[in-house]
Design goal:
binds 3-methyl-2-oxobutanoic acid; TIM Barrel; 12 helices; 280 residues; eight-stranded parallel β-barrel; alpha/beta; single chain
Length: 280
């Protein structure tokens, strides 16, 4: 029998039992297979895809088609993890009908288990519409990269009392609208702790301290594969880029020196066929 995927109920249970929830991004089949085998609870097909995979400078440029293309591969590569798809910029902000159409298309075409969207009260109608159609939704508050321009850049959010109160209200709106999980990005740890304690749904932090119900990081940051700017909240756990460079350099050197292919990589012709070939 195959491995069962985690469900929203399993994740809610984990919060109740104070068991930390792990989330990491993945954008392709082999990475999904690897993080799933490692035992991660949830995989996020983040729109960080734009920067770490497609070489864009932001997440705004990412299209729904690009997300779906990568999401399909992640679902095929994973067995146990709950897979969440980011809804990209302008696929859920215009109105809740369009939000549902795009969320539905994403789930239908990728086979993922849930969608994530950024924002508070202003997207709560969309959250309600999508969840009422039976699609699990994850909210995202704090630093929301799709509106980084309006926020004046990639800055910590919720530092003053007015912003902190607004974020708490937004979190309650998102929970009340039906979201089953919330991501908090780049938020003072004290505020993240208050929100985590106030909500009954799991709160996953990135740059939001240790009191959240779980943590999320971008795979390429964890593995040392991204060469762009690295935020303060990132911790690198491996230097995969160094190891990958070592592999490619070894291959180039061997080809240049004619050390590759070796005897063990060759195919041979039967002697009589070779004689006939050379005789002609
Ligand atoms: O796009 C992404 O990878 C994200 C995480 C950083 C939470 O939204």
């Amino acid at each position: 029998m195959g491995v069962a995927r985690l469900t929203t109920l399993d994740l809610r249970e984990m919060k109740k039992k104070h068991e930390k929830i792990t989330m990491i991004t993945a954008y392709d089949y082999p990475t999904a297979e690897l993080v799933d085998e490692a035992g991660v609870d949830t995989i996020l097909v983040g729109d960080s895809l734009g920067m770490v995979i497609l070489g864009y400078t932001d997440t705004i440029s990412v299209t729904l088609q690009e997300m779906i293309h990568h999401g399909k591969a992640v679902v095929r590569g994973s067995k146990r993890a709950f897979v969440i798809m980011d809804l990209p910029f302008l696929t859920y902000q215009i109105n809740s009908e369009e939000a549902l159409r795009n969320a539905g298309r994403t789930i239908q075409e990728t086979g993922a288990q849930g969608v994530k969207l950024e924002g508070g009260e202003e997207v709560s109608k969309a959250v309600r519409k999508i969840t009422r159609a039976g699609i699990p939704v994850v909210g995202h508050l704090g630093l929301t990269p799709q509106s980084a321009g309006q926020m004046g850049g990639f800055k910590v959010q919720g530092r003053d009392i007015k912003a902190a109160r607004k974020m708490i209200n937004d979190a309650l709106f998102i929970e009340e609208a039906g979201a089953f999980m919330l991501v908090l990005e780049c938020v003072p740890w004290q505020l993240a702790k208050v929100i985590t304690e106030k909500l009954s749904i799991p709160v996953i932090g990135i740059g939001a301290g240790q009191y959240c119900d779980g943590q999320v990081l971008v795979y390429h940051d964890v593995m040392g594969l991204y060469t762009g700017k690295r935020p303060k909240f990132v911790k690198q756990y491996a230097d995969a880029r160094k190891e990958m460079l070592r592999g490619v350099n070894g291959y180039i050197d061997a080809v240049k020196k004619a050390d590759f292919p070796g005897e063990e990589h060759l195919f041979t012709m039967p002697a009589e066929a070779l004689v006939a070939l050379l005789d002609n």
